[in-house]
Amino acid sequence: MSTETAQGNDESGTVEVTEAAADEALSLLKSEGLDEGVAGLRLFVQQGGCAGLSYGMRFDDAPEEDDTITEHNGLRVFVDPASQNYIEGSVVDYESGLQAEGFHVENPNVVSECGCGESFRT
């Protein structure tokens, strides 16, 4: 794993991505026609949900100037400074099963979640 920021290298508080999640995200990124050497998965926190905060994910063509950038199994992950405080130490995984399929964030900073697991509070 490598980590870059606009201010230099900083390994503290980074987000981890499992191999399954990185493989799925890279497959989706390629299907969107994005360059995996420059583009990446943006992980962010936004206001919303019954517990107050929710996760967001999208592909970005390139990182913003002040993003923390990490690489996991070939996948670049971008996190903005405001979101970093809420999700540092989290693990992004991809689960596929009979009941549900998708990305899941395991966040050690969460003190409570809503019943459906879509929002949280730190």
UniProtKB/TrEMBL annotation:
Encoding gene, per UniProt annotation: iscA
Name assigned to this protein: Fe-S cluster assembly iron-binding protein IscA
SUPFAM superfamilies: HesB-like domain (SSF89360)
PROSITE patterns linked to this entry: HESB
Originating organism: Natranaeroarchaeum sulfidigenes
Ranges in coiled-coil conformation: none
GO BP of this protein: iron-sulfur cluster assembly
InterPro entries: ATAP, ATAP_core_dom, FeS_cluster_insertion_CS, HesB-like_dom_sf
Boundaries of every Core domain copy: 15-118
GO molecular function: 2 iron, 2 sulfur cluster binding; 4 iron, 4 sulfur cluster binding; iron ion binding
Pfam name, any one: Fe-S_biosyn
